[in-house]
Amino acid sequence: MSQFSELSPQQAWQLMQQRNAVLLDIRNTLHFAAAHPENAFHLTNQTYGEFELAHEDDHPVIVICYHGVSSRGAAMYLIEQGYTEVYSVTGGFEAWQRAGLPIKTVG
């Protein structure tokens, strides 16, 4: 895959369940801390190295942001870094919430 693909939130959740795809939430720390998709990894400039060490470049990777726009750029960056199976969630975290998919909240 030399280009990322877009997935609906439901398709992303299914890929996480069936193939153990890693979901990378790229929203800011405040929003991630308040609520994020269950089992999401908070990807930041500071956590990229940790992510890179934990996941082979052929492991399925899904990127989610607020509305599904910024995740496209991050997905393309991961492709450029050698990741071969990268996806972006259409509609972002807002669509994830609307779909009623599992969310972890604080408090």
Automatic annotation (TrEMBL):
Principal subcellular localisation of the protein: cytoplasm
Highest taxon above the source species: Bacteria
SMART domains in alphabetical order: RHOD
TM annotation in the entry: none
Active-site positions on this chain: C65
Biological role: Transferase that catalyzes the transfer of sulfur from thiosulfate to thiophilic acceptors such as cyanide or dithiols. May function in a CysM-independent thiosulfate assimilation pathway by catalyzing the conversion of thiosulfate to sulfite, which can then be used for L-cysteine biosynthesis.
Entry EC number(s): 2.8.1.1
Name assigned to this protein: Thiosulfate sulfurtransferase GlpE
Reaction catalysed by this enzyme: thiosulfate + [thioredoxin]-dithiol = [thioredoxin]-disulfide + hydrogen sulfide + sulfite + 2 H(+); thiosulfate + hydrogen cyanide = thiocyanate + sulfite + 2 H(+)
All residue ranges annotated as the Rhodanese domain in the record: 17-105
Keyword Transcription regulation: no
HAMAP family reported in the protein's UniProt record: Thiosulf_sulfurtr
Pfam families: Rhodanese (PF00581)
Keywords: Cytoplasm, Transferase
